[in-house]
Specification:
- This protein is mostly beta strands.
- It has one domain: Methylamine Dehydrogenase, Chain H (7 Propeller).
- Helix content is about 5%, strand content about 45%.
- It has 2 helices and 28 strands.
- The strands form 7 sheets. The chain has a 4-stranded antiparallel β-sheet, with no helix packed on it. It has a 4-stranded antiparallel β-sheet with strand order 2-3-4-5, with no helix packed on it. A 4-stranded antiparallel β-sheet has the order 6-7-8-9, with no helix packed on it.
- Strand 16 and strand 17 form a beta hairpin.
- The radius of gyration is 19 Å and the shape is globular.
Length: about 325
């Protein structure tokens, strides 16, 4: 939770943006990162930052998987699913406390011990894995599958604990920090909150197009779901729509959407990243952008934008981290 001085700084930024009429889209000129660390020499297909932003799993199509200690700028381990080969990692996640990480390719999942760097379990999936999220201490994982299921998987022993059935592909999933609740998004446009002890649906939102991304606050009370051509929705555990993030209409019409979002531990702040490389910090109580950053391209003249792959709040309340698709982890501050 941020200290009083930090909150004052946030509110000061918010006041400045409001004065110049930029509350809905952030300040006029997004800031650049404070510092950047190269974690891949070419594009990154997938990756994840730990909850505290201290670690990164990076999946590069050219260099395979790797674990990075970001505070010391150190590549600790190479993580690939087969010896002497490069794995195209399709998804990655850390357990909430950061001791374990999960990587997947299309059909396999591997549980890694972050401290030893060793693979502890290796399993095959019954269907193509579209998304994954690792639970507390690496005991369970939630998998979004192409066969219209989200499966709660026992990573330690193998086997499916529970299936959550959908009418179309499940392309995005999220877990609460305690692992008791799941949030899923499907190509049928449904975003559903589940009780994993009973397998019952608690609440849902119906979108008009496929849901591309979901996340929830650590306590499982606030949800975000983003569908193409719609503004991202914030809703609560009762299924009530709380707010739509006011992205500019022209961007929404072009299909511009958030690629990743992260709630703060207290659920009052939200970081969002876009395929254009823009990162916004939102004050959810004031419902406004506090500050914005623009991630730089590796090559300024390159026509392809830099997408934001993952974001994290760090233990420093004034520093945030962003993993970009061109192979950098950026420190963001103001």
């Amino acid at each position: 939770m941020r200290n009083a001085e930090s909150v004052i700084r946030h509110l000061s930024r918010l006041g400045l943006c409001s004065l110049i009429g930029m509350v809905l889209t952030g300040c006029d000129r997004p800031a650049e990162p404070l510092d950047s660390l190269e974690v891949a020499s070419r594009s990154v297909q997938s990756g994840a930052l730990s909850r505290d932003g201290a670690w990164a799993v990076v999946g590069s199509g050219y260099q395979g998987g790797s674990l990075w200690a970001l505070d010391s700028d150190e590549r600790r381990y190479d993580w690939n699913h087969k010896a002497d080969s490069v794995t195209l990692i399709t998804s990655a996640s850390f357990s909430p406390e950061g001791n374990y990480a999960l990587t997947t390719d299309e059909r396999t999942l591997v549980l890694w011990n972050r401290q030893s760097g060793q693979a502890e379990q290796y399993w095959s999936s019954p269907s193509e894995i579209l998304a994954s999220e690792l639970g507390p201490e690496g005991e369970r994982a939630l998998l979004g599958l192409a066969d219209h299921r989200a499966s709660l998987y026992n990573v330690r022993r193998g086997g499916i604990i529970r299936n959550l059935h959908h009418s179309d592909r499940v392309s995005t999933v999220a877990l609460s920090v305690d692992g008791a609740r799941a949030l899923t998004g499907s190509d049928a446009g449904t975003s559903t909150l589940w009780d994993l002890e009973t397998g019952d649906a608690i609440a849902h939102q119906q979108h008009e197009s496929p849901v591309q991304y979901v996340t929830m606050s650590p306590d499982g009370r606030r949800m975000l779901s983003a569908a193409r051509y719609e503004r991202p929705r914030l809703w609560n555990s009762e299924g009530d729509l709380v707010w739509e993030l006011p992205l500019p209409k022209e961007r929404v019409k072009r299909g511009t959407q958030v690629t990743v979002a992260r709630f703060s531990d207290d659920g009052d702040w939200l970081l969002t990243g876009q395929p254009s490389g823009r990162v916004d910090l939102w004050d959810l109580q004031s419902r406004a952008v506090v500050y914005s950053w623009q991630l730089p391209k590796r090559k300024a003249f390159h026509p392809t934008a830099v997408a934001v792959i993952d974001l994290a709040f760090t233990n420093n309340p004034d520093v945030y981290r962003a993993l970009s698709s061109d192979g950098f982890v950026h420190d963001l501050t103001y």
